[in-house]
Amino acid sequence: MPAPKATKKSGKENAPLTKARVIKGRDEGMDDDEGSNVDEEGPGKRPPSSQGGITGSKIGKVKGKSEDGVDEKNSGDLQRKLMAMTAERDRIRSQRDTFATQFEELSNLRNTEAEALFDKFRSKAEQHARAQTDVISSLTVHNEKLQEKIASLERALASVPAGLPSAGGVFEAAASKEGSSNKDKERLERREKEISSLKDELAKTQANVKERETRISQLERDYKAEVAHSRSLQASSNRNPLAASVSTTPEEADKDAQSLKLYEDLTDLNITNVKIKTGKAGKEVTFICVQTVEGRSLNFKLRAYNEPDPSLVGKGDNPWIKMLLYTPEGLEYEDITFKQRLGFFASEFVAPRDQAQGLWESLKVRISPNGEVGDDE
After folding, report:
1. 210 falls within a domain
2. Which domain holds residue 337?
3. How far from the centroid of its chain's Cα atoms is residue 101's Cα?
4. Which of 117, 105, 90, 151 is nearest to 281 (CA)?
5. What is the CATH number of the domain that holds 359?
6. Residue 246 in domain
7. Same domain for 139 and 78?
8. Contact between 348 and 256 (Cβ < 8 Å)
9. SS3 for 339-357, per residue?
């Protein structure tokens, strides 16, 4: 059987091999191999189509390797993008949880310190007002009863002379009825004493009522002052509503400590301790201080508190004045010369807080061994 002639490939066959054509070439190569095996049993040579099938198979392998490389590169890019998106998702979840926790804390924060203080003062003032009203009511009822009793005694006293003998034979009748008149006289004396004691009791009751009314007026003024102070505290807290809810971070606490240390280094005023407590007029802060000037030191306490101004209590403005209570400490261990040099700083005194700067400058001059102390200081 003669070998088939090689035919010239058309333009479509000369085009670059695609994946489908490579697979097709592989199939054709397998078919050619099977045909060649059949031909080897008989006479003839391997047809040229088998060589073309082998070539197509090699090209398909090279093409597959290049596509696998592209797929691996794309897979790596997708993997990196997936990792980045996963990290971003975790960050957003953490941020969401933080916001949820802060929102829950803010929701549980029912009122501020100023509002709680205001409610406390209002409740206390209302209790005092109710108690005073009850006392006044009871005293008023008691007073009315006393007045009724006095009136009845006066009426009884007025009716006694009408039953006595009239002029004309009064002396004879009185002589004959001396025993009955003596009894009437004793009865009148007893009633006069009862009326006198009741009048004294009535006067005491009226004085007590007047004192209660004065006390109620004072409590009302104090209540108005507390309300004005609470409103001022509430207004100041509303300027920064999140300041109390946001906790101080260690970084911020370190900044505050460094700032305080710088102030102490610049002024030589060392604040060793601070005590804070809540009083009737708000927060009371006590500073334990040590002032050093040219190697000489003085220990003292400063208590900062609020004091009501009587001239502003009845007005709508803030009636509170910031005050400072100065108390020296450890002077029993100092010499007499140093105590005399301190002047009025050697004893306790109270001053408005707006005078703190001038007092501090004067204190440094008196502590300094070389400071010039004038007669007016």
Report:
1. yes
2. 251-367
3. 17
4. 117
5. 3.90.1150.80
6. no
7. no
8. no
9. HHHHHHHHCCEEEEHHHHH
183 in the same domain as 120? yes
Q: What is the model's pTM?
A: 0.37
Residue 338 placed within a domain:
yes
Please, is 320 exposed, middle or buried when counting C-beta atoms within 10 Å of its C-beta (0-12, 13-18, 19+)?
Answer: buried
242 domain residue, yes or no:
no
Kindly tell me if the per-residue pLDDT of 172 is higher than 70. no
Question: Residue 201's closest CA among 251, 139, 128?
Answer: 139
Interval 227-252 mean pLDDT: 59
Interatomic CA distance for residues 285 and 305, integer angstroms = 7
pLDDT in tens, 68-120: 667 778 888 899 999 999 999 999 999 999 998 888 877 766 666 666 777 77
Q: Are residues 195 and 218 in the same domain?
A: yes
* Residues 195 and 152 grouped into a single domain: yes
Distance between CA atoms of residues 64 and 22, nearest Å: 10
> Residue 150: CB partners within 8 Å, gap ≥ 6?
195, 198, 199, 202
* 100 & 119 share domain: no
The residues facing 279 across adjacent strands are 282
369 and 294 Cβ atoms separated by less than 8 Å: yes
Residue 1 has a pLDDT of 45
Separation of first and last alpha carbons in the chain: 139
Q: Closest by alpha carbon to 235, among 175, 325, 131, 317? A: 317
